[in-house]
Amino acid sequence: MEPYKLFDAEYRFMSIVWELEPVNSTQLCRVCQERLGWKKPTTYTVLRKLGDRRIVRNENAVVTALVKREQVQQYESQTLVEKAFDGSLPGFLTAFLGKQKLSREEAEELKRIIEEATETCP
Description:
single chain; three-stranded antiparallel beta sheet
């Protein structure tokens, strides 16, 4: 898996790109000013850095994501499980849920996801 590590500010920036893409870089600066309080140079600095890392493309003043939100979320969640729970998904789920109870619908959805992810022998 590619290393799609984003810092918090980069993730907030990318959330805007994912929401609006393809987006004109001038409009992106305006939205970043409104939502993040960033000045134009800050937006262009982050845009350039993410472009250098091949996370976004800024071509003809049109910004598009080269990496999907789901790819970043998958990388971040796998990294968290590896780092904090020694790779144990059950350990993560136990800590995440704590004493919280799942609704029947949530439990059924998790069961379906686990069944789909389970390798079956032919």
